[in-house]
Amino acid sequence: MNKKILIVTVAVLAILVAGTTTVLAQGGVNAFDALKYLTGMTDDEIFAQRENGVRLGEVARNKNVYDEFHATMLEYKIEIIKDRVADGTLTQSEADAIIENLENCDGTGEGAYMRASVRFI
Fold it and tell me: Distance (Å, rounded) from C-alpha 16 to C-alpha 90?
């Protein structure tokens, strides 16, 4: 399944960011590394933003890479949700609702996604 996640993630990023490569961590996409790659920021710069209460999605938006960041993380999270349906942790109806919330996520961590789906992923 990890190979499938890798293939889907690479395909999405290749379409969105032509000519670039992806930053992958074992087990899927690492949000910090993806953000570092897309923005050119260092770990310290990202951690400083987080310490000031800025969400990763907001950092991406401030650096004008939110669409690419969101697409990368969305594909990874959808694969996790599919796994949860397959193992019976979620029903397909619950998964569909979570995916809809993820697709509409604004990157602030304050939306319906946080309230509806955090316990599952």
Answer: 30
